[in-house]
Write a structure and sequence with these properties.
- The complex is a heterodimer.
- Chain A is an all-beta fold.
- Chain A is 0% helix and 46% strand.
- Chain A is built from no helices and 9 strands.
- By secondary structure, chain B is mostly beta strands.
- Chain B has strands at residues 4-7, 10-13, 19-25, 31-37, 43-49, 56-57, 68-72, 75-80, 89-96, 104-105, 109-113.
- Classes of the chains: A mainly beta, B mainly beta.
- At the A-B interface, β4 of A face β5, β9 and β10 of B.
Chain lengths: 112, 114
C-alpha cells in the first residue's frame, strides 16, 4: 500500500471549516483513499473514502486532486467533539481482505 | 455498520500471566483483525483472524505470544501470553464484510501489566 504524509498537528476554530491535507504521491491506480479518526479512548471511526471523484457524506467531504497524489478532508463546521487524531490511509478496496496501515495521523484540536 | 463489543474494556495484570480478549460482532462478517496501539503510538496490525484456520500474523508477531481463535463469523479471541510491561497497550478488534465496506473498530481493550 502507498505511504501517506500528514501534518502532525493542527488547530481549528469551532464553527469553521477544518481542512486536513494528505499527500500520497505513490498511490496506485486501484488504491482508494480512506479517512478514519480516533477520539481519545475510542477505537478508530471510519469517516469517508474515495477513488478519484470527490465524495461527501454526513460527516465530511473528501477532495482528491486530479493526479490523485494528494487529498483533503473537509469538516464543514468543526465542533469541539471533532477533536481527534485523523488518519489518511490508502489501500486497495478488494473484497474486505486488505489490512489498514496506519501512519502517525494529524492531531486536530478544535478550539472554542 | 456492525456493532463490535470487546471484553474486557480494560484490565491490569501481573507479568507472566496471560489474558484472553474477546471480540463479538452483532452480524456475520467476513474478516476480523486484531491491532495493537502502544502508548502514544498509532495502530499496528497483529494478525488477521481466519475462520476455521490459523490466523495470519504480521511481521514481528507470533502465534505463541498472540494466539488467536475464530470459531465462527461473529466471534474471535486474542490471547496475550506471558505478559511483560512492554505488552501494555490498547488491543483493538476490527471487522469487514465481503461487500467492500470499510473496516469498523471496537473501542479496544486497555491492558496494563505491572
Amino acid at each position: 500500500d502507498a505511504k501517506t504524509t500528514q501534518p502532525p498537528s493542527m488547530d481549528c476554530a469551532e464553527g469553521r471549516a477544518a481542512n486536513l491535507p494528505c499527500n500520497h504521491s505513490t498511490i496506485s491506480g486501484n488504491e482508494y483513499v480512506y479517512w478514519y479518526r480516533q477520539i481519545h479512548s475510542q477505537g478508530p471511526q471510519y469517516i469517508i473514502h474515495g477513488l478519484k471523484n470527490n465524495e461527501t457524506n454526513e460527516m465530511a467531504s473528501l477532495i482528491i486532486t486530479e493526479d490523485r497524489k494528494s487529498s483533503t478532508l473537509i469538516l464543514p463546521h468543526a465542533t469541539l467533539r471533532d477533536t481527534a487524531v485523523y488518519y489518511c490511509i490508502v489501500r486497495v478496496a478488494s473484497a474486505a481482505g486488505n489490512k489498514l496501515t496506519f501512519g502517525g495521523g494529524t492531531r486536530v484540536l478544535v478550539k472554542p | 455498520s456492525a456493532v463490535i463489543s470487546q471484553k474486557p474494556s480494560r484490565d491490569i495484570c501481573q507479568r507472566g500471566t496471560s489474558l484472553t480478549i474477546q471480540c463479538q460482532v452483532d452480524s456475520q462478517v467476513t474478516m476480523m483483525f486484531w491491532y495493537r496501539q502502544q502508548p502514544g503510538q498509532s495502530l499496528t496490525l497483529i494478525a488477521t483472524a481466519n475462520q476455521g484456520s490459523e490466523a495470519t500474523y504480521e511481521s514481528g508477531f507470533v502465534i505463541d505470544k498472540f494466539p488467536i481463535s475464530r470459531p465462527n463469523l461473529t466471534f474471535s479471541t486474542l490471547t496475550v501470553s506471558n505478559m511483560s510491561p512492554e505488552d501494555s497497550s490498547i488491543y483493538l478488534c476490527s471487522v469487514a464484510t465481503v461487500d467492500n465496506q470499510p473496516q469498523h473498530f471496537g473501542d479496544g481493550t486497555r491492558l496494563s501489566i505491572l
